[in-house]
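Hi there,

I know you've been waiting on this one. I reran it after we fixed the sequence typo, so this is the corrected version. Both the input and the resulting structure follow.
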Amino acid sequence: MQALRYDRYGPADRLYVAEVPEPACPAGGFKLRVRAVGLNPLDWKIRAGHLALVPVFDRPPRGVGCDFAGEIVGVGGGATRHFVGQRVFGSLPPFGRQGALAEMIAVAGDQVAALPDGVGFETAAALPIAGGTAVQALEDHAQLQPGQKLLVTGAAGGVGHFAVQLGKHLGATVTAVCGPANVDFVRGLGADAVIDYTHEDFLRRNENFDVVFDAACSSDYLACRRVLVPTGVYVNTSGSAGAALRTMGAGIYARLATAQRAVALVLANRRPMWERLGRYAAAGVLRPQIAPPIGLTGVAAAQRTMETGHGRGKIVVTLP
């Protein structure tokens, strides 16, 4: 079968399409034919070696990609919930050598959820990491309530564009921060107000928010606390180990010295989250904005675009 691989950390031109053996069907898990894979910044950060010093991450040679959607072609002994031919989606753990960008993958039983009727493979593959991050940030950590004011940085990106949609669904007034090329795009997602960061610094805005979701990881709690209400919540996406550690430290300070909270989000990467996302997609709450689909040979160019930090919505790879 074909799979996207790289043998050494480095730039996107290290990626290549290889012929590799099909994986065995794991006990308690499933073998899938992959139909679509959603790309995430985490994919290129791993490939570039940004997480090379984190012990749990396997070193190259390794595959690429986490978020997938496809059909079950094999059921391992002891596996329940799913059956051959069923459409499913989910996400592989990012630290293993197997990547989702392959014609076939093997997954553990808790890494997949059934794909609801009416939700296509491309939509499903766009959901897990980006959609799960937005849901966990706003519902689980910030506990966003109707009538509250939410500010989202990186509002045009994968996580951010889901956060704008979810914030509106939850009844919040949403202010979105993005670059000039994406102002109309973000407004079309439902944002009540849009800040072009090249013309205005939201930190100097004479306005306070109940929740600041720093999806771009472009600021920090100590800077954002001035635009939070006294009981406000700052959440970021732990875009780097340094950012996560700084936010954890800020969280301790916030608990001890203020009524505010600061949260460095780590995604709960399991079936219950995918099931929540599936329900939201089926109901039209989360509507991934997807660029024209690409094949395996287009991933290197797509990752280069993602590395600029100026992407829009999601990029999805389709497989035959």
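Quick highlight: The mean pLDDT is 93.

Best,
R. S.
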